[in-house]
Amino acid sequence: MRATGRLPGEEGLWSFIAADMMLFALLFGSFLSQRAAAPSQFAEAQALLVPTFAIINTIFLLTSSLFAALAVQAERGSRPGGTRLYLILTIGLGAAFLAAKLAEYYHEISAGVSPASNTFFMFYFVITGLHFTHVVVGMGILAFVGFRMRGEVPPERRQYLVESGASFWHMVDLLWLVILPIFYLLP
Amino acid sequence: MFTGVSLFTTHTTWLGAGVIYALICSLTYLKCRFVIMIFMEIQEAPAGWRVFFELWMIGVTGMIVFLKFAA
Description:
The complex is a heterodimer.
Chain A: H1 11-37, H2 39-46, H3 51-76, H4 80-110, H5 119-149, H6 155-185
Chain B: H1 2-10, H2 17-39, H3 47-70
Helix pairs in contact in B: 1-2, 2-3
């Protein structure tokens, strides 16, 4: 990846990204402290989750992040056609993530699980639901960026737009990388 | 590769729980570091932002490790 010597995209967006990451860090900390207080109860609840769903979603999000990074590189290399294609691929994989997540929620709810079942599932539905919302917002941002690419936008402004959208998307991916182990993988 | 190893940890019985836990924590840290430094390009960012993201990664991974031992 070509070095830039600055934060990619709009600097104001990074303050938002930092605040969002702190919010999720607090949620992760609350969940982990509750887990430490009731390890067997949490282990029983965790056993009801299907890690395969989470692994598939991780592949979707990591690949979509790769495409978002490639969109930024395409824009910096003045290949706007490549930018739009990579943005479409990123949004497509985001949609695949949402579909898989909804399928997983359906599976869990059909098994009789809900946010009111116990503390584990309260945290699970709140944190993954909040993350789900971020994925939807991220897709909206990328779609807006792709739409703006079709109009007359100065090259420097185009680059900032693509970098900003991609930065938000990478944050969404980053949060999932922590959600995966704490809910699905940790013994 | 990281994801495959993560999946491996959920289907393994011959490794001790402690080893699996350590593997998961290290993989999580490395995956986060990859996304932050390479995709988000924080390695090229001003020092303050690099410190923030390093602290975030260490903090989150540290919480996972610490609370395991606090259990």
